[in-house]
Design brief:
heterodimer, A: 192 residues, alpha/beta, 7-stranded mixed β-sheet, globular, B: 471 residues, 5-stranded parallel β-sheet, 16 helices, binds iron/sulfur cluster
Chain lengths: 192, 471
């Protein structure tokens, strides 16, 4: 699987205002027995979307969400905390998201997301509050310029680790990068 | 040269290519632990790209997450929760065979939870870099190793190159002063620490735990504490090695032997943080003022002393958690009825944990209606516990004594609570649904969990521990 490069996404937002949304919420553990990366969109936020009998929940914040037009997830602070399961970004991507915005995103989730073409965007608390208050708003996230543009034209900047940014923009492959360093790795191993 | 911290030294020793503005450092990995859940897709990438496992000799696999903890039936079939779980186990077995990776599979006397067996076998050593596709890899930092959890893509990177791409995180030191009172274990220190700095308090930081209360901890206790650093958002948790570390490792199967051992210990003594080393952040906690802790919310930082009163929720987040957990605000936590108790997981399933649980349970009965599951962390722990007859204590009390594995910590092998159950658990995560749909998890130490099993309510373990010490 090669990742889809990402430059600029203009889309409506889905807002999940809760703090500390952990990876067990994003993909419940019972879906982790899979041996592939595909098809996990069904499992995304499963217990938030469906009740004990597998029926859609009336109260779900995902009701009315169209994965084609809602590609930006705005979530409460410390999104993606918990386990290192890469199934979390796989599920969000397969569901249709390309961007996650929060005031604070957990380290391992962030690293996993970047490696799969899901862009984690950390922004200031004030802009975060504005986004949380406006579910469904149209937002533009520009990775090249590292900016988020809100519906009213307000623009804030964000930072993505430069190597990950290059990988996402230009399709640079991190494993290829490591394989290119093989002479250095061999030299390291040969040290006494 | 500037005074160096343990973390600085561990990092510097493993840099293959320095980090630049454009690219992270290439960091060499000494030991790669793998298990069935986060590895299959990494092996698929190797296959797609025609790559092999570069250093099978630095890779060790085990089966722990989706394996049953009930024994095989008469026909020898294990009671897998699902076909998929069984297939996942079979996939790891195939991948290991194909790539020559050593697998401690079902039936192997060395099998167990990945973070329990590394130290037990003496593979976890000071000065090493250790990774695993599992966020609790920080456990191994208790030995003065640089140990951290990685995702599946990175598992693929390590399989193919024995390296990861990583920028050096910021550093933080958490100093525990004072002497913890009786009944306060490493788990209580961990929960108090997370409550203090928050579930994201350690984000972006490598944490070193230091201070007299850390020196006083056993290696098991240090593992419990480092294990929980990820619950404060810190991917790396570590403790400088000392005589206790060396004593724990000496003579273990994969620890250096003879002259190599002496040389290794000399080297390990050089690792400790030097006076004057700088940290980006420093936190001090007075261990003498801690109590046995429990969690009452749906994030590990919602922790309070076991004898406290349930607080009224204020923020939206707290209201959501309170709605789910259903504690009566204004009433003591110890009034809450318990349905299940789980003693196990890479946080608290080692011999020391089981000894404490047995001390509380000895000669007593699990309250009628409460299911108590005791799941040793490894085959070795199980053998050691049985050699001391701890299993008898548990069985006589009416608890279940299971086969080693992750079990109800992640509840993907069929061991789980029923919707609405209140579970007192020695594991590490109280997330919504973590131990089964609708299950309400209360994190606690083995002593607190055992006392709660006896009383059928959340219980303060101190009276049990004190009573024992009088006679
Ligand atoms: S016991 Fe729990 S936290 Fe530890 S490795 Fe297993 S699932 Fe992960």
């Amino acid at each position: 699987m090669s990742i889809e490069p990402i430059r600029k996404v203009t889309s409506r937002t889905v807002v999940l205002p809760q703090e500390n949304i952990d990876t067990d919420q994003i993909v419940p553990a019972r879906f982790l027995t899979t041996t592939t990366r595909e098809g996990l969109g069904r499992a995304a936020f499963y217990d938030w979307r469906y009740d004990e009998n597998g029926q859609p929940r009336n109260s779900s914040l995902f009701n009315g969400v169209n994965p084609q037009t809602h590609r930006i997830l705005v979530a409460g602070q410390n999104f993606g905390c918990g386990s290192s399961r890469e199934h979390a970004p796989w599920a969000l991507l397969d569901f249709g998201f390309r961007v996650v915005i929060s005031s604070d995103i957990a380290d391992i989730f962030k690293s996993n997301a970047l490696k799969n073409g899901l862009l984690p965007v950390t922004i200031d608390a004030a802009t975060h509050l504005r986004l949380l208050a406006a579910p469904g708003a149209e937002v533009t996230v520009d990775l090249e310029a590292e900016t988020v543009t809100l519906a009213d034209g307000a623009r804030v900047s964000f930072k993505v680790e430069p190597f990950a940014r290059r990988c996402l923009l230009d399709g640079v492959d991190p494993l290829g990068h490591l394989l290119n360093e093989m002479p250095a790795i061999e030299a390291y191993e040969a040290r006494p | 040269m500037k005074p160096q911290s343990l973390f600085d030294k561990l990092w510097a020793r493993h840099v293959v290519v320095d980090e630049t503005a454009d690219a992270p450092a290439v960091l060499y990995i000494d030991l790669h632990l793998i298990h069935e859940v986060t590895s299959p897709q990494a092996f698929t990438v190797l296959a797609e790209r025609g790559l092999n496992v570069r250093r099978p000799d630095r890779t060790l696999a085990t089966l722990d997450h989706s394996t049953p903890t009930l024994p095989a039936d008469a026909s020898g079939r294990l009671p897998y929760a699902t076909k998929d779980a069984e297939e996942q186990v079979a996939t790891l077995i195939r991948n290991c065979e194909r790539h020559g990776v050593r697998l401690l599979g079902l039936g192997d006397p060395m099998r167990g939870i990945v973070h329990v067996i590394g130290p037990e076998l003496g593979l976890t050593q000071p000065g090493k870099t250790i990774v695993c596709g599992d966020s609790h890899t920080s456990t191994h930092g208790a030995f003065g190793a640089l140990a951290f959890g990685i995702g599946t893509t990175e598992v693929g990177h390590v399989l193919a190159t024995q390296c990861v791409l990583q920028r050096k995180p910021k550093s933080m030191r958490i100093i525990f002063d004072g002497d913890p009172p009786k009944g306060v274990s490493a788990k209580d220190m961990a929960l108090a620490m997370i409550a203090e700095i928050g579930a994201d308090g350690g984000q972006g930081h490598a944490v070193e735990f230091a201070g007299p209360a850390i020196r006083a901890l056993s290696m098991e206790g240090r593992m419990t504490l480092c294990n929980m650093s990820i619950e404060a958002g810190a991917r790396f948790g570590m403790i400088a090695p000392d005589e206790k570390t060396f004593a724990f490792l000496e003579g273990r199967r994969y620890a250096p032997q003879g002259e190599d051992w002496r040389r290794a210990v000399d080297d390990w003594r050089q690792l400790a943080t030097e006076d004057g080393a700088k940290f980006d952040r420093e936190v001090r906690i007075d261990a003498a003022r801690l109590s046995p802790m429990i969690t009452f919310g749906v994030s590990p930082d919602a922790a309070a002393p076991v004898d406290a009163i349930a607080p009224a929720p204020v923020s939206d987040h707290e209201k959501l958690a309170a709605d789910y957990m259903k504690f009566n605000a204004g009433r003591p936590f110890t009034e809450a009825r318990v349905d299940r108790v789980f003693i196990g997981s890479c946080t608290n399933s080692r011999l020391e944990d089981l000894r404490i649980a047995a001390e509380v349970m000895r000669g007593r009965k699990v309250k009628a209606g409460v299911v108590a599951l005791i799941v040793p962390g490894s085959e070795q722990v199980k053998r050691d516990a049985e050699a001391e007859n701890l299993h008898r204590v548990f069985l006589d009390a009416g608890a279940e004594w299971r086969e080693p594995g992750c079990s109800m910590c992640i509840a993907m092998n069929g061991d789980e609570g029923r919707p609405g159950d209140l579970v007192v658990s020695t594991s590490n995560r109280n997330f919504i649904g973590r131990q089964g749909k609708g299950v309400r998890t209360v994190l606690a130490s083995p002593a607190t969990a055992a006392a709660s099993a006896i009383e059928g309510r959340i219980a303060d373990p101190r009276p049990y521990l004190e009573a024992r010490h009088v006679d």
